[in-house]
Amino acid sequence: MLHVAVIGTGSISDVHLRAYLDAADEVRVVALADVTVEKANAKREEFGLREARTYADVGELLAAEDLDLVSVTTPPSAHRPVAVQALEAGVHVIVEKPMAPSLEDCDAMLEAQRRSRKLLSVIAQNRFRDEMMQLKAVLDSGKLGSISHTRIASEWWRGRSYYDLWWRGTWASEGGGCTLNHAIHHIDLALWLLGAPSAVAAMMTNAQHDNAEVEDLSVAILQYERGLAELTSSVVHHGQRQEIVIQGERARVSQPWDVTAETALPNGFPAQGGDPDVVADLEEVAAGLAPLTHTGHAAQLRDVIAAIGEGRPPLIDGNDGRRAIELVTAIYQATIERRTIDLPLPPDDPYYRAGTLVQRAPHFFEKTASVGALDGDISVGGTDAPAGVGPAGA
Ligand SMILES: NC(=O)c1ccc[n+]([C@@H]2O[C@H](COP(=O)([O-])OP(=O)(O)OC[C@H]3O[C@@H](n4cnc5c(N)ncnc54)[C@H](O)[C@@H]3O)[C@@H](O)[C@H]2O)c1
Questions:
Q1: pLDDT value of residue 382
Q2: Which ligand 1 atom is nearest residue 34's CA?
Q3: Peptide bond before residue 276 is cis, with ω within 30 degrees of 0
Q4: Which residue's CA is the nearest one to ligand 1's atom 30?
Q5: Ligand 1 pocket test target in 11, 37, 173, 235 with most atoms within 8 Å of CB
Q6: To which H or E segment does residue 253 belong?
Q7: Quick check: pTM over 0.90?
Q8: How far is CA 227 from the centre of its chain?
Q9: Strands 252-255 and 243-248, how do they pair?
Q10: Which pLDDT belongs to residue 249?
């Protein structure tokens, strides 16, 4: 039985707690921590965790409890200090996305993980969805041929009040806007599906949230060996119609799931009806996958629990979290410096360092309100976007 604590008992901690309670034969939640300890106490009541102890201080929690695993569900700027502290105390760590606001922070976390020999997993729950697994299987089959173009629409919608929460809407505590905090889901998916691009061009703006320093819209172009990808990161899109559309040499596949294949007439124009054999072949690859028994956070948390038991790395580790931060950093750098950025970013690049974005990023607007908590449910796990349309979270 693994002893688990959740650090940061705000909105997303509910999803972690539900997943742990659902795996009660393998884990027990023994403690909750939050700088506002009343929030931890309230969560204990809400989830009926009568035996769990609560703490206001992470150091105290780690000293007092014999823990195997913690979920770090604090705001992004606290991910590094809390995760490093937990790893140094010999505890496995699951940290919410985004891993941290800078590559320097990510590397400090990875270094602590190596020294401790414990596991570090960064949440990327949208990989654990049947249609994402299908897309991955089709790409890995090589049956699409070379990839020409990918359109990644990480299009979300958030009202003005979203940025009233105390830690949102500033470069210092949120770490960035929708590129870092929303599109990170699709950025992880794109890197998982396509690998890392070699260069990035981008622009960003704040189109609708005049109460936040950070961007609410960015458009990036990613260069691959032969192909290109376009990534829209947004919290200004009504309808939240998120999509990943991959155009290969032989077919188009997408999420939401759709397969189309053209074939040429002698004159090179597309023939009526396309190529049904290619479509059938790709549909067969997708149909060959068994449906997931768990999806989203529950699946990722269960993978980490299994990895601890089996002494293997988790399916999504700290390097995956870092890769996503590297691409986000390059998008910010490209837009702030107004030039194309080559990847990977070397450690002597100023944008590698913690604090560079805080110094150099434009303040589109100033934050106008700062409240400790906001009323209303957050949507995670398939309920944010219209049913079956896109990943969820943030
Ligand atoms: N994976 C997803 O789909 C998803 C969805 C929503 C949020 N998130 C991520 O989860 C994290 C938290 O977001 P949220 O919406 O739950 O925020 P929140 O403000 O509702 O909760 C964060 C909690 O952490 C506490 N806290 C802050 N600093 C702390 C520290 N040093 N030690 C202990 N507690 C501390 C705060 O008091 C607060 O209760 C963010 O990184 C966010 O991006 C992920």
A1: 42
A2: 34
A3: no
A4: 35
A5: 11
A6: strand 252-255
A7: yes
A8: 24
A9: antiparallel
A10: 98
pLDDT at 392: 55
Report pLDDT for 380. 65
User: Cα–Cα distance between 190 and 326 in angstroms, integer?
Assistant: 13
Whether 247 and 258 have beta carbons less than 8 Å apart is answered as no
CB atoms within 10 A of CB 48: 9
How confident is the model at residue 288, as a pLDDT? 96
Calculate how far, in angstroms, residue 24's C-alpha sits from the geometric centre of ligand 1. Answer: 23
Which residue's entry shows tokens 């089996």? Answer: 310
For ligand 1, atom 44, name the residue with the nearest CA.
394
- Ligand 1 pocket mutation pick from 14, 32, 34 by most atoms within 8 angstroms of CB: 34
Domains contained in the chain, CATH given:
2-126+295-315 (3.40.50.720), 127-290+324-360 (3.30.360.10)
Residue with CA closest to ligand 1 atom 20? 10
Question: How far is 323 from 146, CA to CA, in rounded Å?
Answer: 23
What would the two tokens of residue 223 be?
Answer: 């260069």
Asked if residue 125 has its Cβ within 6 Å of ligand 1, the reply is yes
Distance 8 CA to ligand 1 centre (A): 6
Is residue 94 within 6 Å of ligand 1 at its C-beta? no
Tokens, residue 29: 């939640």
Structure tokens at 343: 């990847």
Q: Which residue is closest in CA terms to ligand 1's atom 7?
A: 394
Please check whether residue 285 is in contact with residue 143, taking contact to mean a CB–CB distance below 8 angstroms. yes
Alpha-carbon distance 54 to 282, whole Å? Answer: 51
- Which pLDDT value is given to residue 254? 97
Per the DSSP assignment, residues forming a β-bridge with 31 are: 5, 53
The pLDDT value recorded for residue 394 is 67
pLDDT by 10-residue block (mean), the chain, 394 residues: 98 97 97 98 97 98 98 97 98 98 98 98 98 97 97 98 96 96 98 98 98 98 97 98 97 97 98 97 97 97 98 98 98 98 97 96 96 82 40 60
- Report the C-alpha gap between 253 and 222 in whole angstroms: 19
Which residues sit opposite 204 in a β-bridge? 218
Q: What's the gap in Å between 279 CA and the centre of ligand 1?
A: 43
Tokens 């106008």 found at: 368
